[in-house]
């Protein structure tokens, strides 16, 4: 069973002039396989910084603290090594890769993660099955990665990767943004299928409580000013639904 | 990155044209048409008034039915040289290689002809491609080996004919080529030219198009990849003089390594008689490393207001770190991710090649160059 441990994590964003602007001011969080943690907070509170710095985006610099996955210091790993170690980031704004088909991309990613090419005989079926489950048209496989995708298609494509790559820890960065209610349901069902295996730990980053009606978190953390200011169970999300972030903002 | 607009070349239709090299003043590098070209590296092609080296040998295996290759002492030229080097090629070429597709022929397979340079003194060559009326063919011209070459390729596409014409410059690293490709598009004919430039030290290819009648359609595509020290220059002049014709120009290049230099200059001229013209031209460059330079200059000169469409675009960008991050975040190692992105950048052009073996070979060659240049 895998564990992601975040200890006193401090992260700055690199500004174009080379200066560092501190965003995360000491974050402590432990995510175990089978658990779902919701990170909730207002815009600009540093939620996405947490997600991208764990994944290793070059725009962020870790200035203090640590992130370990099953005891391995994640900072020592390159972006691709982190993914192969079992980290997955479903992005809020998935990137277009012109000229690279979804089928080719997924096969290349699957090969990289598994360390061997998927068996030709079973792969086609696995891919088709993953697409069907997310109600994607088979023609989708031949389109270029994220190019011309609607908001819903982009997010379904991210969750399809989650299902195919079977990470140890999955960070979902505002997966609910840009989705209508039908797409939100389809995407949530995909996440719940992976949760049901009990082998993946989730860090679910969201601004709104809506997605939490479909994906029930075990823990809720309120993120304000680059750190966690309140923690609780699912009932905390319901409180936020009613009260909003006002109270935490004034306190911070 | 350099993108600049220059004054509309009102002289494009009136430039000096002559078959005699001595009618053209000696090049000094200040001429608008030559300002990007490192003349020194052109060697004898700059000053010579005749070239005597051996032209590349013409090699081919079985040709599909309907396609013949022969040599002729002379052929009525379609290209009236409009610069010194094309006049030099015309005057010095010992003969003309004639590739002919019979009228109404529809060869089942592509005709592959290789021009192989054997080194030695600067040489001249002429190639003439004649596609008969109502024919439909694919011709692939593979240029390899070592040369210092001035050459003209003249292409006549008959009425209602369809030609896919692929020219590959896979010269040795020391090769120098200044080439003119002239395409005459027949009435209702359709030509698709794909110009691939990977090799050579200096390769400068000037493609010009004219229309013999209404309804002609010319698609000019280019794919180039310059690595350290290479100069690759592509110029086009599409001269719309007939009504209701179409042109579509799309060139894409990647650059990698110190002093890799590419130049794209796309000129489209729509004359007053060419009403109903539909034209678009675009150049895109992907700069993979520091120290490379891509010049990109689209020019559109329009003398009639009654066009169906006329546009141009040019974009030169660096390798997108966000794409790299996205792919690497899915476990794909950096080298592999870069290959995917560059292959993807060229995919649209490579997919236009109707021969699967060649598509694969080009994809592999591009990947190999990416690695060879030490990314």
From TrEMBL, chain A:
Q: Which UniProt keywords apply?
A: ATP-binding, Nucleotide-binding
Q: What is this protein called?
A: Fe-S cluster assembly ATP-binding protein
* Keyword Nucleotide-binding on entry: yes
Question: Which domain of life does the UniProt lineage start with?
Answer: Bacteria
Which family is annotated? Belongs to the ABC transporter superfamily. Ycf16 family.
The UniProt GO MF terms for this protein read: ATP binding; ATP hydrolysis activity
Q: Which organism is it from?
A: Actinoplanes lutulentus
Task: Give residue ranges for domain ABC transporter.
Answer: 4-250
Pfam families in the record = ABC_tran
Automatic annotation (TrEMBL), chain B:
Could you tell me the superkingdom of the organism this chain comes from? Bacteria
> Where would I find the SUF system FeS cluster assembly SufBD core domain in this sequence?
120-345
Bilayer-crossing residues are: none
**One of the GO biological process terms:** iron-sulfur cluster assembly
Q: Which Pfam families is this protein grouped with?
A: SUFBD_core
Q: Which SUPFAM superfamilies match?
A: Stabilizer of iron transporter SufD
Which chain positions lie within coiled-coil regions? none
Family annotation (NCBIfam families): sufD
The Swiss-Prot or TrEMBL record describes its family as follows:
Belongs to the iron-sulfur cluster assembly SufBD family.
Protein name, per record = Iron-regulated ABC transporter permease protein SufD
Q: Which organism is it from?
A: Actinoplanes lutulentus
């Amino acid at each position: 069973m895998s564990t992601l441990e975040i200890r006193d994590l401090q992260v700055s964003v690199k500004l174009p002039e080379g200066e560092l602007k501190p965003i995360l001011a000491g974050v402590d969080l432990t995510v175990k396989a089978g658990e779902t943690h919701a990170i909730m907070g207002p815009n600009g509170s540093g939620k996405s910084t947490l997600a991208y710095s764990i994944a290793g985006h070059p725009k962020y610099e870790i200035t203090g603290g640590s992130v370990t996955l099953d005891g391995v210091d994640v900072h020592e790993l390159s972006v691709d090594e982190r993914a192969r170690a079992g980290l997955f980031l479903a992005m809020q704004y998935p990137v277009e890769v012109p000229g690279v088909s979804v089928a080719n991309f997924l096969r290349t990613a699957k090969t990289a993660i598994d360390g061997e090419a998927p068996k030709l005989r079973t792969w086609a079926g696995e891919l088709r099955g993953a697409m069907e489950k997310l109600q994607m048209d088979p023609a989708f496989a031949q389109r270029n990665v994220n190019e011309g995708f609607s908001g819903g298609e982009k997010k379904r494509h991210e969750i399809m990767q989650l299902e195919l790559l079977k990470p140890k820890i999955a960070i979902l960065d505002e997966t609910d943004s840009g989705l209508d209610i039908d797409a939100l349901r389809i995407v949530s069902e995909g996440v719940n299928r992976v949760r049901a295996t009990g082998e993946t730990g989730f860090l679910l980053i969201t601004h709104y409580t809506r997605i939490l009606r479909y994906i029930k978190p075990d823990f809720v953390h309120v993120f304000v000013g680059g750190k966690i200011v309140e923690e609780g169970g699912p009932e905390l999300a319901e409180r936020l639904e009613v009260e909003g972030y006002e109270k935490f903002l004034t306190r911070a | 990155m350099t993108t600049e607009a220059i004054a509309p070349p009102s002289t494009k239709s009136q430039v000096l044209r002559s078959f005699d090299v001595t009618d053209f003043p000696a090049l000094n590098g200040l001429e608008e048409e030559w300002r990007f070209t490192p003349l020194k590296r052109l060697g004898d092609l700059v000053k010579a008034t005749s070239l005597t080296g051996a032209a590349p040998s013409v090699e081919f295996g079985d040709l599909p039915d309907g396609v013949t290759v022969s040599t002729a002492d002379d052929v009525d030229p379609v290209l009236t040289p409009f610069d010194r080097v094309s006049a030099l090629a015309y005057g010095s070429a010992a003969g003309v290689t004639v590739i002919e597709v019979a009228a109404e022929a529809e060869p089942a397979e592509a005709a592959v002809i290789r021009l192989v340079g054997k080194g030695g003194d600067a040489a001249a060559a002429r190639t003439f491609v004649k596609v008969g009326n109502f024919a439909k063919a694919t011709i692939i011209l593979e240029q390899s080996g070592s040369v210092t070459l001035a050459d003209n390729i003249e292409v006549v596409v008959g009425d209602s004919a369809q030609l896919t014409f692929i020219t590959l410059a896979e010269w040795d690293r020391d090769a120098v080529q200044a080439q003119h490709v002239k395409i005459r598009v027949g009435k209702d004919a359709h030509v698709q030219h794909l110009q691939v430039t990977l090799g050579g030290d200096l390769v400068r290819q000037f493609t010009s198009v004219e229309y013999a009648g209404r309804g002609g359609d010319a698609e000019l595509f280019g794919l180039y990849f310059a690595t350290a020290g290479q100069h690759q220059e592509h110029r086009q002049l599409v001269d719309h003089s007939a009504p209701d014709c179409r042109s579509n120009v799309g060139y894409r290049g990647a650059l990698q390594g110190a002093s890799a230099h590419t130049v794209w200059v796309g000129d489209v001229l729509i004359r007053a008689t060419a009403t109903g013209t539909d034209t678009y031209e675009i150049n895109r460059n992907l700069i993979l490393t520091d120290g490379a330079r891509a010049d990109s200059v689209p020019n559109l000169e329009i003398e009639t207001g009654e066009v169906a469409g006329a546009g141009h675009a040019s974009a030169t960008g660096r390798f997108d770190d966000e794409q790299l991050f996205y792919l690497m975040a899915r476990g794909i190692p950096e080298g592999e991710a870069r290959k995917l992105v560059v292959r993807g950048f060229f995919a649209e052009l490579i997919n236009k090649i109707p021969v699967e073996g060649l598509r694969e070979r080009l994809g592999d060659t591009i990947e190999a160059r990416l690695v060879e240049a030490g990314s």
